[in-house]
Every structure is written in structure tokens, then in C-alpha cells.
Write a structure and sequence with these properties.
- The protein is an alpha/beta fold.
- The protein is about 35% helix and about 25% strand.
- The chain has four domains: about 120 residues, Rossmann fold (3-Layer(aba) Sandwich); about 120 residues, Transcription Regulator spoIIAA; about 120 residues, Transcription Regulator spoIIAA (2-Layer Sandwich); about 60 residues, Nucleic acid-binding proteins (OB fold (Dihydrolipoamide Acetyltransferase, E2P)), CATH 2.40.50.
- The protein has a nine-stranded mixed beta sheet with strand order 2-1-3-4-5-6-14-13-12, with helices on both faces. A five-stranded mixed beta barrel has the order 15-16-17-19-18.
- Helix 2 links the parallel strand 3 and strand 4.
- It is globular and about 55 Å long.
- It binds 5'-deoxyadenosine and iron/sulfur cluster.
- The site of iron/sulfur cluster (SF4) has 10 residues, from helix 6.
């Protein structure tokens, strides 16, 4: 990632300013530097606002410029986040086909993963409605932090550009990561998210001593002050019993697993070289649910892979129903240079059909997500406080261990862990009131 630069333009209110601060922090931790102008950046990001027409006009100008910069330098990546992107959802790509990634408030960590996986160029739409976790305080005092644990990938997924651009997986030294976690805690972090293309194959390349991902989880859990530990993304193939057991045995490891599916059709999974089929994926889900019945499960899905028929797509829909995801990030397949799938000429799915499929999928995902979210109503959950609510200044927002955004009534400071009683749910967020301030601000 080193050597890449980005330019971020922020429109709108204070909330967007906070989101942008968090995007800056993320990109910095991924090794991006700030470009002086969008014309010089490898990654052009617009954090948008839809409140006034004047913002719309400025945005239209910026989008037009970004399109020109990309035409002049084809490697440029364009991302659009915030409220305007949220209001258009997947239509962004129909109306502005040069946009690579669209994301709503709260999807900053997904943006990080998207960039790491080099899936940019694949048009990605991240399910919207969460709340970006930033603290209205000094940038170095974030309660939530990221740590990149490896680069590269040893898999050969046929749609994915990572193996050709990043090469084989290289894990960062174990002791460096533990030291970095200690450092992050010293700077105010209490939640750490481990990032990598394939986090759960971490450590197999380390010498003289091989390490495993579950050992890394245990070591970071052991760092005094790490209250919450997350990771993204694992590969279903390497989602073994030791990693699942870490969720049960280690206090900080959260009750949330992001397990990328990509397709529910065994035929398409084979063409994607995902190394598992539909049944194997579902048996992993069953193993996880048996060990951690209340786990939140999220996933990534690609629609419109070459050869995907209506029947294949319906297999994806039925798996989504069966697996009961709490959220899913959906992508329209796009051909990437130097990938095996780029050579497939048969069965190419027309853009309109892919767009129609992603629309149906998003609808099903949202219905399922609402049902899952409703299980929290009436429960008391631990929330890491992030700041004032974006929609209602009387309320506060934060995130649960299950990675659900919560808006709540009460008095609490950013960085505190509080107990919130959940009163209602939507497909993307929960709402409630504070019953207990369980842990002081660090
Ligand atoms: N087309 C569409 N989606 C892709 N992704 C990766 N490469 C592509 C591509 N060529 C998606 C996958 C992955 C996520 C980070 O991006 O779903 O899990
Ligand atoms: Fe790409 Fe597959 Fe590796 Fe993920 S696991 S980075 S999709 S090759």
C-alpha cells in the first residue's frame, strides 16, 4: 500500500467532519499519504451531504473533475461516502459508472477492508445506516483502532486482483503486533480491529516460529486495556475450531464474525475458486452457531459473476435466508486485470441484469437484518460510546459487541462502556436508554 496517496473532500455538517477524521485515521494506518489536490491522488474520496442543493451542485462539479482525473490516469479510484451516497444506494453506479465504491455513514471499517483487498474497481455498495464511530476529541485518542496484521494472499480467487498485485501473504511479526496493541491502548484505544486479506491464515509464514491466528488473538486479548477485539476478513476455509473457540474463551473477542460468502451456488463458487461449496459454507455457519448461538454473522456477496444464471442467483438468495446474516455487503462483479475470471467470455451477465439482482438481494438482506436486529429488543447490551447521534443531538451513539450501531438516551462520554437497554430496532441500528455506566473513560 505504501506510496499511494488520497484526497478527501468533505461536504456538509459536523457529523461528516467527524466521519472524515476517522477516514483519515484509517487511511493513515493503511500507509496512504495525503495528496495536495484531487488531481494528484490515487484515491479520490468525497464524503457527501444531501441536505442542500448547493452541496449537490458542488458535488456534481467534484464528481465531474474526478471523472476527468480518472480518464487521464486510469488507475485512479473514486469513492463516494456519506448521506448523498446513502440516498442513492446502488443507483450511484448506474448514474456515475466511474465511481468504484459507495458507502454510507458507519462503513469506514468496510472501506478499509475494500481498499486492503484491492477490490476497488469492483463496484461495491456497502449496506447503509450504521453510524461512523469517531470521537469528537483529539485524533490520537480514538477508542477504536485498526491494526494491519498481514499483506498479500495465498488464495487464488478467480475474480480477485490481490494475488497478482500483492503477492503471497506476508505476516507482520507477532511481537511487533503485540507491541503495537500496547501502544494503541496507551493512546486511548480500547477496541482493536485486526485487518488483513485473509486474517485467519496469519502466521503460517513466520520463521523461525510459526504462529497461528488464534494465538495472535490470545496474545492481544492478554494486553491490558484491550476490552474489545475484532478482525476482518477471515476465509471460510480457515475458519477452524480454534478461531471459533477464541470467541468463546477470550473475553475481548467480540460476538461478531464477518465470513465472506461470495455466492450461494456451488457451481459459481467453484468458478470463483473459493475452495468451499455451498454445503461446506453452511456447515461452518452451523459450527459457529453451535459454539456461539447468539453470534452476529455478516458477509460479502458478489452478484453477476460470469456464468451466473437466474437459478445460481436464487441459490444465493436461499443461502442468505438459511444463514440468517445480520448484514451483508453486496458487490456487482467487475472484471479485474490479470485475473483468471477476466478471461471468461461465456455467460457474461449484462449490467442491467446484475443491477436488478443486486437490488433484489439488498432487499432480502435488509429484511433478514431487521429480523435479526429485533432479537436485541428488551435486552441490556454493552455499548462503546462514540459521540452524539447523527440524527438526534439529544441522543448518543455507540456500537455493541455484536457490531450494531445504537442510538440511546442518557449521559455518557465518548470512549466509555455503558449498558443500554434496547427498546427498538431497524435493519441497521438499535435504539434504547442507558441503564448503567459500567466503565470509566480512559
Ligand atoms: N468484483 C466484485 N467484487 C469483488 N470483491 C473482490 N473482488 C471483486 C470483483 N472483482 C469483493 C468481494 C470481497 C470484497 C472485499 O470485495 O466480495 O470479499
Ligand atoms: Fe482475493 Fe480470495 Fe485472497 Fe480474498 S481470499 S484477497 S478474495 S484471493
Amino acid at each position: 500500500m505504501a506510496g499511494l496517496s488520497y484526497h478527501l473532500t468533505t461536504f456538509g455538517c459536523q457529523m461528516n467532519e467527524h466521519d472524515s477524521e476517522r477516514i483519515d485515521g484509517l487511511l493513515e494506518s493503511l500507509g496512504y499519504s495525503q495528496a495536495a489536490a484531487p488531481s494528484e491522488a490515487d484515491l479520490i474520496l468525497l464524503n457527501t451531504c444531501s441536505i442542500r442543493e448547493s452541496a449537490d451542485r458542488r458535488l456534481a462539479t467534484q464528481l465531474g473533475n474526478a471523472k476527468r482525473f480518472k480518464a487521464a490516469r486510469p488507475g485512479v479510484v473514486i469513492g463516494v461516502g456519506g448521506c448523498w451516497a446513502q440516498s442513492l444506494k446502488d443507483e450511484v453506479f448506474e448514474r456515475y459508472p466511474f465511481v468504484d465504491v459507495a458507502f454510507g455513514p458507519g462503513q469506514v471499517d468496510r472501506l478499509g477492508e475494500f481498499l486492503l483487498a484491492d477490490s476497488i474497481g469492483a463496484q461495491g455498495y456497502f449496506e447503509f445506516g450504521g453510524f461512523t464511530a469517531d470521537l469528537p476529541m483529539r485524533a490520537q485518542q480514538r477508542a477504536q483502532a485498526w491494526m494491519q496484521i498481514s499483506v498479500g494472499c495465498n488464495q487464488k480467487c478467480s475474480y480477485c486482483i490481490v494475488p497478482s498485485t500483492r503477492g503471497l501473504e506476508v505476516s507482520r511479526p507477532f511481537s511487533d503486533l503485540v507491541a503495537e496493541a500496547e501502544h494503541l491502548v496507551d493512546r486511548g484505544a480500547r477496541e482493536i480491529t485486526l485487518l488483513g486479506q485473509n486474517v485467519n491464515s496469519y502466521g503460517r509464514d513466520l520463521r523461525p516460529e510459526r504462529r497461528s491466528f488464534s494465538e495472535l488473538l490470545a496474545a492481544i486479548d492478554g494486553v491490558e486495556g484491550v476490552d474489545r477485539l475484532r478482525y476482518t476478513s477471515p476465509h471460510p476455509q480457515d475458519m477452524r475450531a480454534d478461531v471459533v473457540a477464541a470467541h468463546v474463551e477470550l473475553e475481548s473477542v467480540c460476538e461478531h464474525i464477518h465470513l465472506p460468502l461470495q455466492s450461494g451456488s456451488s457451481k459459481i463458487l467453484k468458478a470463483m475458486r473459493r475452495t468451499y461449496d455451498r454445503d461446506r459454507y453452511l456447515s461452518r455457519v452451523a459450527m459457529i452457531r453451535e459454539a456461539i448461538p447468539d453470534i452476529s454473522l455478516t458477509t460479502d456477496i458478489i452478484v453477476g459473476f460470469p456464468g451466473e444464471t437466474e437459478a445460481d442467483f436464487e441459490q444465493t438468495l436461499s443461502l442468505v435466508e438459511e444463514a440468517q446474516f445480520d448484514a451483508a455487503y453486496t458487490f456487482i462483479y467487475s472484471s479485474r486485470r490479470d485475473t483468471e475470471a477476466a478471461l471468461i467470455t461465456d455467460g457474461v451477465v449484462p449490467a442491467e441484469q446484475a443491477s436488478e439482482r443486486i437490488g433484489r438481494l439488498i432487499e432480502l438482506v435488509q429484511r433478514g437484518a431487521l429480523k435479526r436486529a429485533e432479537r436485541f429488543v428488551g435486552r441490556s447490551v454493552e455499548v462503546l460510546v462514540e459521540g452524539p447521534s447523527r440524527t438526534d443531538p439529544e441522543r448518543i451513539r455507540g456500537r455493541t459487541r455484536h457490531n450494531k450501531a445504537v442510538n440511546f438516551v442518557g449521559i455518557a462520554e465518548p470512549g466509555e462502556l455503558v449498558t443500554v437497554e434496547i427498546e427498538s430496532a431497524t435493519s441497521t441500528s438499535l435504539s434504547g436508554r442507558v441503564t448503567l455506566v459500567s466503565s470509566a473513560l480512559r
